[in-house]
Amino acid sequence: MPGAGTDSTKPWHEGGPVVILVEPQLGENIGSAVRAMGNFGLSQLRIVNPREGWPNPKAVTFASGADRILEEAQIFPDLRSAIADLNFLAAATARERGMQKTVIGADTMATEAAERISAGEKVGLLFGRERTGLYTEEVSLADVILTLPVNPAFASLNLGMAVAVVSYEWFKLVSAGALPFQQPDRYVLADKGDLLAFFDHVERELDAALFFRSKEKQPVTTRNIRNIFHRVGLTRQDVATLHGMVAALVEGREKRVARTAARLGTGAEAGARGEDDGG
Question: Boundaries of each tRNA/rRNA methyltransferase SpoU type domain copy (predicted)?
Fold first, then answer.
C-alpha cells in the first residue's frame, strides 16, 4: 500500500547499481530492502535462492508500493550465475575477512559506482543472509569490501537497513543532495520602516508597564531588545503578528485594571451603604 510520501505524478527513478540479496531468509526483509531501493532510486534487484521461495506475499506487503521492483526482480539459483554479467562487485559485510581487498564506505562506493556506470560498466552491491551475512567464499568473488562506520560493539544491521544506507548514499550523490521540497518564501522580510514602527510600539508599551526600571540603563536595554529581533530576520507577517501580541497584552492589562477597579468600587459602595443603614 502506498504511503504518505508516495506521489504517482513524479517520475520514477531507475537504474543505478544492481542490488543482490543472497539467500534472504524472510519476505519481510526482502520487502524492506525493496522499499529502501525505491526510496533512493535503485530499481534492479536480483535474489539468490530465497529461503521461503518466490514470489513472497510478505515481500509485497513490506515493499509498501515499490511493487515494480519486485515484479522485475530476477531469481537465481546460485551467486555465480547472479553476478556473471557484472563488471564490478562490492560485498557488504560488517566483519574483517582477512583478505587483501580494498575496504570502502557507502559514500565512496556511490562515487565508484557512478563513474563505472557512466563508463558503461555494470555494478553490483552484494548483501548476505540476515543471520550469518555473506560467507567468506562469497566475499572473495567481490572486487571490494563495502562496510559502514557503525558501533564496533553492535555492528549488525538489519538487511533492509543496510540496503537503505547504501542506497541513500547513491541517491544523495546522483541527485546532488537535492531535497524533495523547500519551505516556500510566502512572506517577504520586513523593511526597516516596519521594524522601526514595531520598536516604537513595543518600547512605548514596555515603558508604560514600568519595564525600564532605570532611566540610565534604558538606552542599553532598548538596544539589546532591538538586537534580539534583528537576529531573527523577521518577515512582514512576523511583525504584524508581534504588533498584535503586544496590543493583546496591553488590552488584557487594561481589562484587568478595569475589573479590579470595579471590584474595589463595588466594595466601597457596599461599605458606605452598610454604614448608612447602621446609622
Answer: 18-168
